[in-house]
């Protein structure tokens, strides 16, 4: 911390001295920002990263309790249920439960209570759900299912209530972000013509520092704070570049982006030369991001279709297993009955099992398993439950049906949460991609309609100075701010609604940048022709 403060002080002194010697007052705000940013980063970044990681981990809690209670339905052994829930999970929450279970070996304890105490500090409902699981494990056989249902209901209601509370709490911060990050800066651009008429000549360097550095840094900081406050998330599947289902388009995306940006910029020079760099940057970056992440987005949709059919698949298989049908035959029947992506997945499982002689678990997760390259936590949970049912037989039938109902309820909560957040973040997305660029473009065109020496005539001044604002000087500054606004606000709205996912953020920003660029240029041209 002391080092960060020393670096900040040195930067402030150096930049302020350079501004004083060069006679550039615009460097003074930059000097202050450079002095503050290092200390703020050192203080805030580690805690923020921990909060984001914890939020993502807590998103797995409902699924973990689903596995825990399903195993408890099959066999009333809390220790085995905890072990199964921990080993069948892949995230930080499952790893934490596994560590607590190892520490509790030989003590007569399952480790669930200490696990709940650790995570209950951040999500109190985890302690309640864990206590209900313990009660269910100790309850008589005829009351166990009721206790298990109460535990699952506590886990779901905890997620639902916290998500609903966050949707209400976030309205004021998002409104403030919208007002001070969008409305006020764009309104100041619109006031510049009146300021020039009054003789107030604002330097372009000052505006560049404010709009292209300080405001974007402030928006990023506010966005990261909002994301850190976001409660339990429903994170999208993580799809990395090594997944064989997604083609590697990094080189072609860079080439296509440069080509598209060059052509768009060259075309812009024919009617608005000063906007050519803005058009090249906005169009080129947007096209590159779209080309890079479109296959990932399509894979996301396929995963969503698979997950949407999982509750019905578990219910169909569970009922047949409860009737005494083997899991292998029940999976084949469910594949035929369901159709769609979920049916196709189960069909691949059945086909590989019969052709290669694999077990149910191997046909899901083995070297040739159907889920090996499908990064869906819910699909993996369903596969593990089906593999468990293959070893336990009819007693697991009711548990599979209950697991399907649990997944259906989680999907409902996720839809409602995203719907509530989308109603709040939709304004940010629309403003970033369309309304903000339109207002900025009209404001730049209005500046161009004021005579260059208007301020001097009204105040008795002399000839206009070199720092007089015009569309060719103000336009690039506002245009860059518009692009930064489109990227930052679109990314924030997407992350608040869907969770932090690189591919989804890249795809949404790739859509917003060309839209914002076209809206800005069209507004400048149209307003200049009309005014």
Q: Give the helix tally.
A: 21
Rg of Cα set: 29 Å
Outline: elongated
Q: What is the total tally of β strands? A: 0
Query: What kind of oligomer do you see?
Result: single chain
Question: Which whole number gives the mean pLDDT?
Answer: 81
List unreliable stretches of 5+ residues: 1-9, 454-467
What is the distance, rounded to the nearest whole angstrom, between the alpha carbons of the first and last residues?
53 Å
Residues in helices, as a percent range: over 70%
Order of helices and strands: HHHHHHHHHHHHHHHHHHHHH
Secondary-structure class: mainly alpha
Question: Beta fraction of the residues?
Answer: under 5%
Largest sheet report:
none
Commentary on this structure:
By secondary structure, the protein is an all-alpha fold. Among the domains are: 1-170, no CATH class; 307-400, no CATH class. The chain contains 21 helices and no strands. Helix 12 (276-308) packs across helix 21. The protein is elongated, with a radius of gyration of 29 Å. The model is unreliable at 1-9 and 454-467 (pLDDT under 50).
Summarize it.
The chain crosses the membrane at residues 177-198, 204-228, 278-294, 421-447, 478-497, 509-530. The chain has 531 residues and is mainly α.
Keywords summarizing the entry:
single chain, disordered N terminus, 21 helices, membrane, transmembrane, Flp pilus assembly protein TadB, 531 residues, transmembrane helix
List the helices and strands and how they pair.
Blueprint: H1 2-22, H2 27-58, H3 61-74, H4 78-87, H5 92-103, H6 112-120, H7 124-138, H8 141-169, H9 171-197, H10 204-229, H11 250-268, H12 276-308, H13 310-322, H14 327-338, H15 340-356, H16 360-365, H17 377-392, H18 397-448, H19 454-459, H20 471-498, H21 502-530
Helix pairs in contact: 1-2, 2-10, 3-4, 3-7, 3-8, 3-17, 3-18, 4-5, 6-7, 7-8, 8-18, 9-10, 9-18, 10-20, 11-12, 12-15, 12-21, 13-14, 13-17, 13-18, 14-15, 17-18, 18-20, 18-21, 20-21
Protein name: Flp pilus assembly protein TadB
Transmembrane segments: 177-198, 204-228, 278-294, 421-447, 478-497, 509-530
Keywords: Membrane, Transmembrane, Transmembrane helix
